[in-house]
Amino acid sequence: MTMLLRSALYVPASNSRALQKAPTLDCDSVILDLEDAVAPSAKVSAREAALEFAGSGALGERMLVIRANALDTPWGRDDIPAIAYSGAHGVLVPKINSASDVEEVDKLLEGAPPEFAMWAMIETCAAIMALAEIAAAARSSRLSGFVSGTNDLLKEMRAAPMPGRPNLIAMLALTVAAGRASGLTVLDGVYNDFGDHAGFAAECRQGRDFGFDGKTLIHPGQITAANECYGPSTEQLADARNIVAAFARSENAEAGVIEVDGKMVERLHLSIAEETIARAERIHERERQTSGS
């Protein structure tokens, strides 16, 4: 079953209290951070803490990813192979600029469990210009996901954060398109002002409408809104069930286009409807497991 990734919370691996709290939170995924959130003097101890957490299985069946330090740092080449055998589901690698970077990471993951995933941060101008070749590297590597690093991208562009992200729209759309072309999971970047609930909700809706699978988060207070936004609404689920039921009727068995509730609906909409229902079922199962019922 495909893992839910509506909400992926960054947790500093150097923060023991945050690590203890992580299993109690309702996020779909946790990304233990060894990079931005960890001071240079704490890099090694943070790695050890992340490996211990991953080995404990405290997160259950939810996806656990560890963000390593970049390849060109003193810690990255030690982080990546250690994470591969930690019990985590995958590694998130920052500053991926080319297909050759993907290949280099893949070599460092040699011998890891077959299902172990590599995610790449798309956060540099070079990565944007090389999106097609980076995504295509998934055909011959463990690469299975893109994560937008909008803060670093803005910094490198010498651009300012703007409401609605008009200066990032092209890059966000290209990231989703390149990811989809190679069958990758694609997660949106973080929203820094965790006290701005309306702004965060608006950015979640924007990311969802762009086609992202979910959003990366910096604060537990953002989890509920992300989960709600990236899950189908009651109305969307009802529409999906109506479409599936309509195509299931014997008179529509061979039809390519039919009318449902006054709208023309094609078989591509049937596929979307089936995925919407499947996603709702995964969310229901996740909630059932969380509640213990």
From TrEMBL:
Q: Does the keyword Ribosomal protein apply?
A: no
Q: Please give the cofactor(s) recorded in the UniProt entry for this protein.
A: Mg(2+)
Q: Which UniProt keywords apply?
A: Lyase, Magnesium, Metal-binding
Domain HpcH/HpaI aldolase/citrate lyase, first and last residues per copy: 6-220
Q: Which GO terms describe its molecular function?
A: lyase activity; magnesium ion binding
Q: Does the keyword Cytoplasm apply?
A: no
What residues bind substrate, as annotated?
R67, E123
Q: Which InterPro entries match?
A: Aldolase/citrate-lyase_domain, Citrate_lyase_beta/mcl1/mcl2, Pyrv/PenolPyrv_kinase-like_dom, Pyrv_kinase-like_dom_sf
Write out the residues that bind Mg(2+). E123, D152
Q: Which GO terms describe its biological process?
A: oxaloacetate metabolic process
For this chain, the family text in UniProt reads: Belongs to the HpcH/HpaI aldolase family.
PANTHER family, alphabetized: CITRATE LYASE SUBUNIT BETA, LYASE BETA SUBUNIT, PUTATIVE (AFU_ORTHOLOGUE AFUA_4G13030)-RELATED
The name of this protein is CoA ester lyase
Record organism? Qipengyuania atrilutea
